UniProtKB/TrEMBL annotation:
Protein name: Uncharacterized protein
Gene3D superfamilies according to UniProt: Chorismate lyase-like
Species, as recorded: Streptomyces cyaneogriseus subsp. noncyanogenus
InterPro entries: Chorismate_lyase_/UTRA_dom_sf
Superkingdom of the source species: Bacteria
Length: 135
């Protein structure tokens, strides 16, 4: 079991980008990034592996233009039923429940720079989030 305490921390082990194709902003992504629906977004899905080589989590990130440094972030915890792609990547059954952490990185004015979904299998993670000081 791992414990997630910082939704903005770098993954300390091996990770691999599995998809980097551009995406159009859905209604949800447009709201999260404060962009028009349909705007072209950069996109990256990364599979994070534990030291034994097992998939520990999936991180899917969306942003506009070039990535920029952030000064703070927000994180919201929820639960999601896994679709076929996520379930297969994590070695779980379709419709299995997983934690979903929605992380949004912000600039100094509080504007969203990028947003991400962290998908964590419930059988491998305990989530303990606490407010953090601005960076």
């Amino acid at each position: 079991m791992r414990t997630l305490t910082d939704a903005d921390a770098d993954w300390p082990f091996f990770s691999e980008a599995t998809d980097t194709s551009p995406r159009r902003a859905t209604e949800e992504l447009a709201e999260r990034l404060d962009v028009p629906v349909g705007a072209t977004l950069r996109h990256e899905t990364v599979e994070c592996l534990d030291p034994g080589g097992r998939s520990a989590m999936l991180v899917t990130t969306w942003w506009r233009g070039e990535r920029q440094p952030h000064v703070s972030f927000t994180a919201e915890l929820g639960v999601v039923s896994l679709g076929r792609g996520h379930a297969h990547a994590l070695g779980l059954l379709v419709d299995a429940l997983a934690f979903r952490v929605v992380r949004t990185r912000l600039d100094a004015q509080g504007r969203p720079l990028e947003t991400a979904d962290l998908i964590l299998p419930m059988d491998r993670w305990l989530v303990r989030l606490a407010p953090t000081a601005q960076r």
